[in-house]
Specification:
By secondary structure, this protein is α+β, with helices and mostly antiparallel strands. The protein folds into 2 domains: 39 residues; 64 residues, Copper binding periplasmic protein CusF (OB fold (Dihydrolipoamide Acetyltransferase, E2P)), CATH 2.40.50.320. Helix content is 36%, strand content 34%. It contains 1 helix and 5 strands; from the N terminus they run H-E-E-E-E-E. The longest helix has 38 residues. 11% of the residues are buried.
């Protein structure tokens, strides 16, 4: 009788442990997907039409006339104070519109 009870406890503990591990795997998978989204990057070549170094907002118009508004986040290495409207620039950004780098042409 005691042996059956111990076996049931062991099986119950194993089932609970496996259940918890399945959620941990899903959480790690979601975190990896979030990191991948930030790694997807693009480049815009165009002319600055508006810039606000205080808020980090930069509006750029490419050669086809398409306008983009991107953001330099606080703490990044991007120094917007060296740029002004009319500058021709190349901007590398991550998928959520955050500027990774900006250089004059």
């Amino acid at each position: 009788m005691m042996k059956k009870l111990t076996s049931r406890k062991l099986i119950s503990v194993l089932v609970v442990a496996l259940f918890m591990l399945s959620f941990a795997g899903a959480a790690v998978s979601q975190e990896a997907k979030g990191e991948e989204a930030k790694e997807v990057a693009g480049t815009i070549t165009g002319t600055i039409i508006a810039i606000d170094a205080d808020t980090g907002k930069v509006s750029v118009q490419d050669e086809s006339g398409q306008r983009y508004t991107l953001t330099a986040t606080a703490g990044s290495d991007v120094d917007l104070k060296t740029f002004s409207s009319g500058d021709k620039v190349n901007i590398d950004y991550v998928g959520d519109g955050v500027i990774r780098s900006i250089t004059k042409q």
